[in-house]
Design a protein that fits this description.
By secondary structure, this protein is of the alpha/beta class. It contains 7 helices and 17 strands. It folds into 3 domains: 5-128 and 170-192, HUPs (Rossmann fold, 3-Layer(aba) Sandwich), CATH 3.40.50.620; 217-279, Adenine nucleotide alpha hydrolases-like domains (SH3 type barrels, Roll), CATH 2.30.30.280; 282-364, Translation factors (Elongation Factor Tu (Ef-tu), domain 3, Beta Barrel), CATH 2.40.30.10. The protein has helices at residues 14-25, 54-67, 77-93, 100-119, 161-165, 176-185, 207-215, and strands spanning 5-9, 29-36, 71-75, 124-126, 132-136, 139-143, 167-168, 220-224, 230-234, 261-266, 271-275, 282-291, 302-307, 314-322, 325-334, 342-347, 354-364. The strands form 4 sheets. Strands 12-15-14-13-16-17 form a 6-stranded antiparallel beta barrel. The termini are far apart.
Length: 365
């Protein structure tokens, strides 16, 4: 597709800068926009580690100037706080493990931003995500990127067909080393800028401390799931995630001497259940609110590969849409699967694994 009006979301990093450059080179009429996502940008991570700091906005503006495209900063702080930060806190308080990057893509970049872009007459939003996107018979097909290590199809799998129809991911066929080299050739100052890591709205990376500041102390018991023995107390289930091994605050070793892991969180009673790694094995996943990126729901049981975390956690499975939800039976057990995470279904494909659908994990067995 050429000659479109494209709004390039420019975070100030190398990926979004090169994506915008490629959109210009493809003949699109491109306008750059940086999203101001914090009411207090000075409090966010600096040193080229975040994605919405004052420093990042300056880097994005310099890249847009070099590309010769108009550039704006749009204030989405209130929407980001409501749809991403408050959702993150509420999910942890409920004993679930959310993915804020997935929520940001779903609610901010391809809902709030895309809605505004379409209202202003743009045809598409362009981002620096590593994923392949194509239109086949008028339907979008989302696939893994060429760079398996950087693939971001997992955090894009909650997007609807309508949203994907108005999306551009120019980096899908590239590997990160080539993108950095291209940035250097183009004279982009961000060519060597480190990738962002962790959660942008938690500056010091201390998720437990951030949640404690928002939720306060909600003490409860640490219980051995096999024996029912009380092993200690904690200050809130929001300080734990299923599969966690370190920082449990248990002084008594397990009888067999092996590490204990968090098995389940019970926010109402304040109970954190712990046990051996074997008890983390999951063979069935139930998902709610399924999304079908190509607009085609599963028809009957389907052989697929599922992914339950942004990096890793894959297994062959049989998935089926049941009563408005999703049931996934794993052919190989997975460990550390937590309610609140997304389960994404892929169909192996020579052109790059195709995303069949996604859902929010509501239960495991």
């Amino acid at each position: 597709m050429t000659g479109m009006r494209v709004l390039a979301a420019m975070s100030g990093g190398v990926d979004s800068s090169v994506a915008a450059a490629r959109a210009v080179e493809a003949g699109h009429d491109v306008v750059g926009v940086h999203l101001a996502l914090s009411a207090k940008p000075g409090t966010l991570r600096t040193g080229a580690r975040g994605c919405c700091t004052v420093e990042d906005a300056r880097d994005a503006r310099r890249a847009a100037d070099l590309l010769g495209i108009p550039f704006y900063v749009w204030d989405f702080a209130e929407r980001f706080t409501e749809d991403v930060v408050e959702d993150f806190v509420a999910e942890y308080a409920a004993g679930r493990t959310p993915n804020p990057c997935l929520r940001c893509n779903e609610k901010i970049k391809f809902a709030a931003l895309l809605d505004k872009a379409l209202a202003l007459g743009f045809d598409a939003v362009c981002t620096g995500h590593y994923a392949r996107l194509s239109l086949v018979d008028g339907r979008p097909e989302l696939r893994r990127s060429a760079d398996e290590a950087k693939d971001q199809s997992y955090v894009l799998a909650s997007l609807t067909p309508e949203q994907l129809t108005h999306a551009l991911f120019p980096l899908g066929d590239s590997v990160k080393t080539a993108v950095r080299a291209e940035a250097a050739r183009r004279g982009l100052a961000v060519a060597d800028k480190p990738d962002s890591h962790d959660i942008c709205f938690i500056p010091d990376g201390d998720t437990r401390g951030f949640l404690a500041g928002r939720l306060g102390e909600r003490s409860g018991e640490l219980i051995d799931d096999a024996t029912g023995q009380v092993l200690g107390r904690h200050s809130g289930v929001h300080g734990f995630t299923v599969g966690q091994r370190h920082g449990l605050g248990i002084s008594t070793p397990a009888p067999d001497g092996r590490p204990r892991y968090v098995l389940a969180l019970e926010p109402v009673s304040g109970t954190v259940r712990v046990g051996s790694a074997d008890r983390l094995r999951v063979t069935e996943i139930t998902g709610e609110r399924p999304v079908w990126p190509s607009g085609v729901p599963l028809a009957g049981p389907v052989e697929c590969v599922v992914q339950v975390r942004a990096h890793g956690g894959t297994a062959p499975a049989v998935a089926e849409a049941v009563d408005g939800g999703l049931t996934v039976r794993l052919r190989k057990p997975l460990r550390g699967v937590a309610p609140g995470q997304a389960v994404v279904l892929y169909r192996p494909d020579p052109a790059g694994d195709l995303v069949l659908g996604s859902a929010t994990i509501s239960a495991t067995a």
